[in-house]
C-alpha cells in the first residue's frame, strides 16, 4: 500500500498541474465495488466513433456519453448515466477532489464520458478550457491496463517542459484544465478511461459567447 499524504498531492497539483493517484494508494477515493460498477457501465454504454485525426491520419476515439456539455450540462438518456453520476457524486470522491483543488466551494460535474483510444490512435495537444472556459479540473479514472503507450503528457505553462503520467488500472488523474496536454499514441491494446470535468459553475457553457 503506497501512502502519500495529501499535502504532497496538493503541492504536486499546484506545481505540475496534475497528479496521478494509483488504485493501490490509500488516498484513492474509489472503492473496489464502485470501480467495478463504473467499469461495467462504461463497457455496456452505447458508443460512437469520433474522428479526431489530423489531416489524412487515421485517428479516432470511441466515446460513450453520460453528461454532455454542449450548451449546458445535460444528462444523456441511457440506463447508466444516473448510476455513474451517483458514484461520481459520492462524498469521498468529491471531498478528495476539493482537497486537491484547495477549495471549499461546491463543484459541479460538467461533461462525463467514457473514452476508448485504440491502437495507433492518440489525443493531440489541447487545452480543456477551449471546450468550456469554466472547467477547473479534468478527472480521469483508468478502467483497464491492457495497453501500451497512451501516456498522459502535461506541458508546463511557461516552459516546454512536460510531465508524463502512465495511468494504470483504477488510477485517478486530476489535471488542471489550464495546462495543455495530450495522450500519446497507444502502441498496443485499447486504453479505456472515464473522464469527467468539474467546475464551480453549473450554468451555460460560455464557450460560444
Ligand atoms: Fe483534455
What structural keywords apply?
binds fe (ii) ion; alpha+beta; Jelly Rolls; four-stranded antiparallel β-sheet; 209 residues
Task: Write up this protein.
- This protein has 209 residues and is α+β, with helices and mostly antiparallel strands.
- It has a single domain (6-201), classed as Sandwich (Jelly Rolls).
- The protein has 4 helices and 14 strands.
- The strands form 3 sheets. Strands 1, 2, 3, 4, 5, 7, 11 and 14 form an 8-stranded antiparallel β-sheet that branches. The protein has a 4-stranded antiparallel β-sheet with strand order 6-12-9-10, with no helix packed on it.
- A hairpin with an 8-residue loop joins strand 2 and strand 3 (60-69).
- The longest helix has 13 residues, at 32-44.
- Fe (ii) ion is lined by residues 126, 128, 138, 181.
Proportion of residues in β-strands: 35-45%
Count of strand segments: 14
Radius of gyration computed on alpha carbons: 16 Å
| Ligand types | fe (ii) ion
- What's the main sheet like? 8 strands, antiparallel
Helix content: 10-25%
Amino acid at each position: 500500500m503506497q501512502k502519500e499524504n495529501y499535502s504532497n498531492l496538493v503541492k504536486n497539483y499546484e506545481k505540475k498541474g496534475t497528479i496521478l493517484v494509483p488504485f493501490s494508494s490509500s488516498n484513492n477515493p474509489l472503492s473496489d465495488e464502485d470501480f467495478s460498477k463504473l467499469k461495467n457501465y462504461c463497457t455496456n454504454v452505447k458508443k460512437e466513433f469520433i474522428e479526431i485525426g489530423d489531416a489524412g491520419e487515421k485517428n479516432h476515439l470511441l466515446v460513450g456519453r453520460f453528461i454532455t456539455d454542449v450548451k449546458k450540462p445535460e444528462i444523456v438518456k441511457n440506463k447508466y448515466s444516473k448510476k455513474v453520476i451517483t458514484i461520481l457524486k459520492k462524498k469521498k470522491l468529491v471531498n478528495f477532489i476539493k482537497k486537491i483543488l484547495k477549495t471549499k466551494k461546491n463543484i459541479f460535474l460538467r461533461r462525463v464520458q467514457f473514452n476508448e483510444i485504440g491502437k495507433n490512435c492518440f489525443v493531440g495537444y489541447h487545452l480543456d478550457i477551449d471546450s468550456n472556459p469554466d472547467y477547473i479540473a479534468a478527472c480521469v479514472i483508468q478502467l483497464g491496463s491492457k495497453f501500451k503507450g497512451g501516456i498522459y503528457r502535461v506541458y508546463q505553462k511557461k516552459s516546454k517542459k512536460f510531465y508524463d503520467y502512465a495511468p494504470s488500472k483504477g488510477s485517478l488523474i486530476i489535471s488542471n484544465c489550464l495546462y495543455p496536454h495530450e495522450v500519446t499514441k497507444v502502441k498496443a491494446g485499447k486504453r479505456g478511461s472515464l473522464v469527467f470535468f468539474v467546475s464551480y459553475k453549473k450554468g451555460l457553457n460560455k464557450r460560444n459567447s
